[in-house]
């Protein structure tokens, strides 16, 4: 199965961003992953609007935007206009999540939900048919370099086993995606991985070598 590789650009070298984009694309990545945080839904701040627009406009690969913000439905059009092709929203932050997911599709982007570690399958099952992607957080959102929460694995398996009943959404893992976890979880059906400091950035090997190893593993 082809692994969808999504470098987390929050971890990239912003002093050399053009080259980072070029080298990542040449390595065969699939989607640029862009994190947006508001300091309320998560206790941190992420990428700015100018960063989002720049990467979307200078890349040939699609960009997804992970909105770790309160009331994401208020900002969907903004991120579509900036160039986002896939938009993840947190149901924990949106009391009108079904309306927001439909808005994403109506505006021409691909809708997905992102789930905190404590959010269960049962809590979101009724609107999974509105999603093309389910981004499962294996760490608490907001910070890089956290450890994988092992209790998440059974939840991942549940989402994978139920996918065909709800339109065939793809499961993407976000958080502590080490090479070992990528190998293990791809074998049980995880379609894609957000790559941060655990697997891709700040390593001695170049992006070509690292991404090739994920393809083979």
What's the structural blueprint in terms of helices and strands?
Layout: E1 4-7, H1 17-26, E2 32-37, H2 49-58, E3 63-68, H3 76-82, E4 86-89, H4 97-106, E5 110-115, H5 121-124, E6 133-137, H6 152-162, E7 170-174, H7 179-187, E8 192-195, H8 207-216
Parallel strand pairs: 1-8, 2-3, 3-4, 4-5, 5-6, 6-7, 7-8
What is the architecture at the second tier of CATH? Alpha-Beta Barrel
CATH secondary-structure class: Alpha Beta
Low-pLDDT residue intervals, each spanning 5 or more residues: none
Number of strands: 8
Give the class from helix and strand content and strand pairing: alpha/beta
Order of helix and strand elements from N to C terminus: EHEHEHEHEHEHEHEH
Q: Can you give the mean pLDDT?
A: 95
Main β-sheet, in a few words? 8 strands, parallel
**Superfamily at the CATH H level?**
Aldolase class I
User: DSSP helix count?
Assistant: 8
* Radius of gyration computed on alpha carbons: 16 Å
The largest sheet has its strands arranged as 1-8-7-6-5-4-3-2
Number of domains: 1
Given the C-alpha coordinates, what overall shape results?
globular
Instruction: Report the portion of residues in β strands.
Output: 15-25%
Question: Span between N and C termini?
Answer: 11 Å
Helix percent reads 25-40%
According to CATH, the fold-level topology is TIM Barrel
